[in-house]
Amino acid sequence: MKILLTNFHYGRGGGHDTYVGVIARGLAVRHQVYVAAPATSRLYAHVSAMPGVHALPFEFPAKLKDVRRMVPAWRALRALLERERFDVVHVNGSPDHRLLMFAMMGMKGTRPRVVWTKHNSIAIKTDFLTRVRATRATDAVIAVSDSTATFVRDSVYGGKPVTVVKNGVDIDAFQPASAAETLAARAMLLGEAGAGQLVLGTVTGFDWYKGTMDMIAAVAALPREARDACTIVVVGTEPSEEQWREIDALGMREQVRVEGFVEDVKSYVRAFDVGFVVSYAIETVSFACREMMAMGKPVIVARYAGLPENIEDGVDGWIVPPHDPPALSGTLARILAQRGQLGAMSVRARAKAEREFSQQDFIDQTEQVYLQQLPTSSKSPPA
Q1: Which of 48, 89, 299, 325 is spaced 20 to 30 Å from 202 by Cα?
Q2: Which domain holds residue 323?
Q3: What is the DSSP letter of 358?
Q4: How many angstroms separate the Cα of 42 from the Cα of each of 4, 12, 13, 46, 278?
């Protein structure tokens, strides 16, 4: 197959970057794979270095202020489609999907089959252009969680085949650390004074919907002794000035370690006792949750969208009500009281990752969605 993957994000695209990059690298060994993304994006930099992947610098203007750039972008995409004659175009957001819709209008010859992945829990619109995109510029939908699939099937995309393909992670790269590696990571991050702390960590940053401020508020609400026993480590987007003021008002600055963006999160995750992804909007299944579990970290998740699909409550993690610091505080108190159970939960988190989070299964299932859209004569089996 000849496949074009698209992503509209400038700079960092979060889980989109991981998603497209994993598919591109995995399928390039047996198909012709192209990735179109802005030249300034993290994804473009990553795929440019991947053997066998063709990186195309491409922008997907979508806002009214960008209207002058839309027509040249549309023409460029139309020219690309007519020149390369892709079998499948896999779009990953509204801006790239919308531009593809316009580029295919009136296109001569056979158009590519279009696969769209719904990555988030944002409501799907019902306006005219969205309906056209669903009916005329989509052949199949990938949902990254069961909950996502449910609301896609109830939307204007309901007439299209919807396949659940949950995010896979590299369980060989994301391995549990040895006891010595864990101690070294904690000493590097927290110093000797942090050796006995309960380290609560996330790699999802401080974006408003991630719930990181809920975790800080939940720790702040614990009795003094329990509160002082906790350290929160946050990798990713740094706090806004307003969030720092809130952290200071809670008296939590000394217990919150902010590490910013890093390319490789594993050295930080090794230092965690417990991971957390307590988003209350936008989120779906979460690469971050699955990576931490693969490293043997039980994870606290919010009962929101696809997050609970990762966890068996009380077995390999905990499920808490979304955006509810008092409830989260209660869960933390139980974790502190039953800290001796973390070792067994760590083993079960890793076992689930090995059983259910296979990156190769994720790649193979995505490939099957592509193949199902092609005429029988065009289907080429894996090499």
Answers
A1: 48
A2: 179-356
A3: B
A4: 18, 5, 7, 6, 25
